[in-house]
Design brief:
The complex is a heterodimer of chains A (260) and B (272).
Chain A (H helix, E strand, L loop, with lengths): L1 H38 L1 H12 L3 H23 L8 H39 L2 H7 L4 H39 L4 H11 L2 H29 L4 H31 L2
Chain B lengths: L5 E10 L2 E11 L4 E5 L6 H8 L7 E6 L2 E2 L5 H8 L2 E4 L11 H12 L4 H14 L15 H12 L6 E5 L7 H18 L2 E6 L2 H7 L2 E6 L2 E6 L1 H5 L4 H8 L15 H6 L9
Parallel strand pairs in B: 3-8, 3-9, 6-7, 7-8
Antiparallel strand pairs in B: 1-2, 1-4, 4-5, 9-10
Helix pairs in contact in B: 3-4, 3-5, 4-5, 5-6, 6-7
Classes of the chains: A mainly alpha (260), B alpha/beta (272).
Chain lengths: 260, 272
Amino acid sequence: MIESVLRGLGRWGLDLLWRLGRGHLFLWEILKGVPETFIRFPLLIKQLYSVGVLSLMIIAVSGLFVGMVLALQGYYTLVDFGAEDSLGVLVALSLVRELGPVVAGLLFAGRAGSALTAEIGLMKSTEQLSGMEMMAVDPMRRVIAPRFVAGVISLPLLAAIFSALGIIGAYLVGHVQLGIDAGIFWSQMQMKTDWSADVVNGIIKSVVFGVVVTWIAVFEGYDCVPTSEGVGRATTRTVVHSAFAILGLDFVLTALMFGG
Amino acid sequence: MNEPLIKIRDLHFARGDRAIFKGVNIDIHRGEVVAIMGPSGTGKTTLMRLIGGQLKPDRGTVEIDGQNVHALSHDDLYALRKRMGMLFQSGALLTDLSVFDNVAFPLREHTDLPERMIHDLVLMKLQAVGLRNARRMMPAELSGGMARRVALARAIALDPMMIIYDEPFAGQDPISMGTVVDLVHDVSDAMGLTSIVVSHDIKEAAEISDTIFLLSGGKVIESGSPIKLKRSTSPWVQQFMQGLPDGPVPFHYPGTPFAEDLLSGSEASDYD
């Protein structure tokens, strides 16, 4: 009994290390293909469209509603202390520092990450990747690198759009519905939101999440078992691992950026 | 005879504990059409991938045109692959590109030819497989036979020196089967290509090939012209060439006897 548990644990550990190693070698291969991606611009544009532009709708709508809900919840708490004028600051800081990168990252993993994994997994299972290799076209450079670069560019932009629309949503609720003075709402926000401490740190977070989520997504697709079950599992893994990675890294980054 | 184009020596390959090849030796000369045949599961497709350098053998060598495929650097291997065509069983067409763009794909990737010339070249290749007028269709709209013909047009787009066909006849209706057989033959003939046909369709493979290699149990058990193989006295070769259900290769997968299984009660099942 104990022996089999230990054996299982050992196998799990070895598998994990094996996958981590493969994942990092894979990232190295991608990075070698990145410079070429900028030369072959049309490929990148196509991926920016399918990874970034097609994720816009869910990001925009979610951002707007998250901002609106934040404003409502924030208002009812702040008003007890007569501090409802700080609503703009509260919403802006929450969005720019945390919710923008994190929620946009989670939504991006669900919308674009899973699609990337499924697409690459299906390309593998229908022998399209092997076919490319045999035509002397390296799938790492032709298929994987442009998708990776597109993901890394898209997520910070999407997170910015998420935050901006969230702030607009908060303004609509705060000013139009709850009657907070618009001048105070904006001026407090401008005064108390710092460019480098808040905005730049938020952008750094979203870049990190962009790299990690897209890396997980393309790796899972490329590494999946090429069957319908395998592609399904890989897609699930992309979403779950991305969520863990985003939340874990967010804690680490927050501790590094705002802890000191 | 001059030096063979493809020289496979003492090839060993295993998947996990299961040995697939235990010392395969094959010579393929320039301009020859060779069929590699054997029952399902003998590793025909694996052999194809070993030749293409997508898998590495545990022991032994594959030499193509004097180059040891598995000792080449990444760039040299890719340079060699430009001179090889491969036709996958599924066609392996890129599903996001039209028929025209699929055939144009290797030309656009590897040459700097102007679009006008690519247009003409692609139409010539598609004309050769009879699908010039299907050039605007997407792969999902093609039948299995058509997809394979498009893949053939793509495989010959760069005028390779050799071409490998993976089960080109499998799962075809009689008409497209006839078309594909003719095409494989004509393409090899017209372009002087060295062709390797991996297949288990005896009649069709025998019709077009100069030499047949029969694989079983990880080795080449017989090789020679189709006529020589048909006259072989080996019971195994006779069973395979005539398609007899039982013989040296048993109909039943080896294991416990039937009576014993029936008496053993119910099976453990996932559906409990």
